[in-house]
Amino acid sequence: MTQIEEHKRHIIPYAEYIQIWLGLLALTGLTVACAGMNLGRWVIITALTIASTKSMLVLNIFMHLKYEERMFRIFVLVALITFIIFISLTFFDYAFY
Amino acid sequence: MTSEAQAIDTIHRDDTGSRMGLWLFLFSELILFGGMFIVYAVYRFLHPEEFRLAAAELDPFMGTINTMILLTSSLTVALSITAIQRGKKYISMTFVGTTLVLALTFLIIKYFEWSHKISLGIFPKSPELTNKPEGEILYFGLYYVMTGLHAFHVIVGIVVLVFMLIFISKEIVRKESYVKLEAGALYWHLVDIIWIFLFPLFYLIH
Question: Shortest CB distance from A43 goes to which of B24, B75, B205?
């Protein structure tokens, strides 16, 4: 059974990985270019938005999350939401006191 | 297929479970680095100007090169899985080997960056650094701890990838059974993701 199960698994073609890699390099160029501009308080927002987009590409394609069972995506979502709760609760202590 | 052959093929194996186990480990890494990112966020919020000044000491060019190296190493380790899925043993080994070379290059660049900072007298508890304002001391403290812990993960990743190379050559990892390589690759991608965040947060504050 294991063999059958394994053979059913999606094989991501080389070309798809290379496209994602080119996208990641382009986003790296974009984040460097944005940092060169004087964006003031938007610096951190653009930097984190681009970094999150890059992470999503790595998670979904390189780490095969897109092709895994749904449970994997739920796990990752729960982990990320937990982290966001941690960081936002921390800022209640610092930003609004 | 005879029932005997089938019996051999159906030796208990749960690759999905194995991958899920590795994902759970990755979540513990998220908490490890996440805690540090929270400390970073708070101190940057409290000392925005000093973080900006301190970050000017870092070379964005080196950071960009290292980002591209790590992204490319993530690509090659991902390609190695496609290769092994297609039964191309030596192509897969070449991809893992390339990943290893890129990982070592990353560390060498990191070494030059660190030794340059240290030669300027900027390292924890150095007289040069302790005379700086509090925000800059905090920035460099976080810089050394977070990139240091990341570099440690790169070293662990290198050891893991060397094992992968041995596994593929001994055909422990092969077309029919490659979950070990997938696990190693997942870990390597995590190291990449952490750097994706470290790079703009330390190198690109202007």
Answer: B205
CA-CA distance, B89 to B80, in Å (whole number)?
Answer: 9
A76 chain-B contacts, CB cut-off 8 A: 23
Contact of A62 with A17, CB cutoff 8 Å:
yes
| Residue in B18, B54, B21 with CA at minimum distance from that of residue B142 | B54
Of A14, A3, A57, which Cα lies nearest the Cα of B94? Answer: A14
Q: Would you call B148 an interface residue with chain A, using a CB distance cutoff of 8 Å?
A: no
What is the CA angle B182-B170-B74, rounded to 5? Answer: 30
How far from B67 is each of B30, B35, B102, CA to CA, in Å? Answer: 19, 22, 11
* ipTM for this model: 0.90
A15 touches chain B (CB under 8 A): no
Distance CA B180, CA B96 (A): 13
Which chain B residue's Cα is nearest to A79?
B27
Indicate the pLDDT class of residue A2, thresholds 50, 70 and 90: very low
What are the phi and psi torsion angles at B185 (to 5°)?
Answer: -65, -40
Q: What is the pTM of this model?
A: 0.91
**Cβ-defined contact of A63 to B189 (cutoff 8 Å):** yes
Beta-carbon contacts of B145 under 8 Å, excluding residues fewer than 6 positions away, are B36
Which has the closest alpha carbon to B83: B75, B74, B92? B92
Tokens 């800022």, residue? A91
With contact defined as beta carbons under 8 Å apart, do B26 and B112 qualify?
no
List Cβ neighbours of B120 (8 Å cut-off, separation of 6 or more). Answer: B57, B128
Please give the full DSSP string across B49-79, using - where no structure is assigned. Answer: HHHHHHHTTS-HHHHHHHHHHHHHHHHHHHH
> What is the per-residue pLDDT across B29-65, written as a single tens digit (0 to 9) for each?
999 999 999 999 999 999 999 999 999 989 999 999 9
Of A1, A24, A94, the CB nearest to B71: A24
